[in-house]
TrEMBL record:
<keyword id="KW-0472">Membrane</keyword>
<feature type="transmembrane region" description="Helical">
    <location>
        <begin position="55"/>
        <end position="73"/>
    </location>
</feature>
<keyword id="KW-1133">Transmembrane helix</keyword>
<feature type="transmembrane region" description="Helical">
    <location>
        <begin position="21"/>
        <end position="43"/>
    </location>
</feature>
<keyword id="KW-0812">Transmembrane</keyword>
<protein>
    <recommendedName>
        <fullName>Cytochrome b561 domain-containing protein</fullName>
    </recommendedName>
</protein>
Amino acid sequence: MDRTRCNPAHPRRQFFNWVHRGIGVIAMILATTAVCIAAVHFLGIWPHKISQTTLSLMPLVVLLVMSAVFLCIDKFIDVDELNLSKVGYK
């Protein structure tokens, strides 16, 4: 992924951002699925049913909250020439 990253001012940067974000979301979905499978198949570890449910739902809740946070950040923080010069891209 690092080799395909372009300059923030490049016209195809939006495409890179969406592909990068999509790969991250797919990774989180796969990780959430793995945690849910572990919670369901290892029933002897959890003394209470609520522990299993909490473990299964927590990654999904974190994924949804973090997605909402990053969508808000993406919507309300504007990237301009001044911001790019602060992080060393110019």
